[in-house]
Specification:
56% of the residues lie in helices and 11% in strands. The protein has 431 residues and is of the alpha/beta class. Helix 1 crosses helix 2.
Amino acid sequence: MSEIDEDHVSRAVGTSPRANESPDNIAAALSERLQRARTNDTCELTILMPCLNEAETLAVCVKKARGFLERAGIDGEVLIADNGSTDGSTDIATQSGARVARIAQRGYGAALLGGIRAARGRYVIMGDADDSYDFTCLDDFIAKLREGYQLVMGNRFRGGVAPGAMPPLHRYLGNPVLTGIGRLFFGSPCGDFHCGLRGFDRQAIERLDMQSAGMEFASEMVVKATLNGLKIAEVPTTLSPDGRNRPPHLRSWRDGWRHLRFLLIYSPRWLFLYPGIAMMVLGFTVLAWLLQGVRYIGGIALDIHTLVYASGLIMLGLQACLFSIFTKVFGMSQRLLPPDPVFERLMRIFTLERGLVLGAALIVGGLVGSVHAVVDWQSAAFGPQQPQELMRIVVPSLTAIMAGMEIVFASFFLSILQLKQFPSRQAGSPD
């Protein structure tokens, strides 16, 4: 075998492994990519199946996938990403004509990430190895990929769900709700976020730097593809009852929560900003309404006690809005979220100095109100006060002081988050 220079190896290996990955997975990823570079052993399509003890159905899945490649005349391979099977699945895969990549890190997402790195195809079509998807009918996927789409999602609700193939909880609650949230939060065109049969351009998906090791990997791929502007298409696909005699690996409530958690974490606007704005608007409205005196709604008197709660609502809303900004800045700096030119322009406008000025103005305003309250108290010889009158000065003043201090601290913290890290000077380099 001919020698290859270090630059060629570096290009083949690609981006650096993530810090939280296991050494076994890092070594496997580098080994697979280096082998791919040395042999130039590439093809058009890899049909990828994650596997954990799928001995009952693996052979028929591989047979269907190989049959599709032969019928369609596609230069391709069938790759099994084995996640630690103990039932002979790897032997069955090899005997059936598939290639096996052993993935040490456990989890659905970990298996697929390892499989994607090991894939030789320009395109990858992934699907579960439980015989619930028909690997003989992948023509629409490959056609869309050849048209230039970078992610092609199957849609089981358009293609048809066979009786008994999907639990009612998933069909009528889990999938529609989570897909609806994903479409609302991210503007994704996908109508079935969790379809396990999907095709993609391997290099485009590798550039997304996927992180999830569990079932939420399915949501992460759609969300990141949408946020990064990949070309996405959908094709109808069918779902049949799986061919296994054991329960599936999926755990409805646990994995459903993990999907929802991921969607929330990747959308600071919906998790923090919009609720924060709503709380601040409601708090300001109630506070301004009650400053004039007692208000009545259907015979119920709303007085200074409600005023205190309105102040608390304003502070909670401000905290949530600041958290949304912190999260956005951190996510973009760590490349967890794609660049946002509008947000970056706003951050250049609202500098540390302007934040300090705004915070100081609120603090001064609050102190002025507090001094006014003390003067009123002095006029009564520092005796007992009418709380209905005094609190209408104290509560807004204290709210302004606390909000100002929050903004001052937040401005410094944002400046820390935005600090640029420069490479350290090499030993022996000139001053």
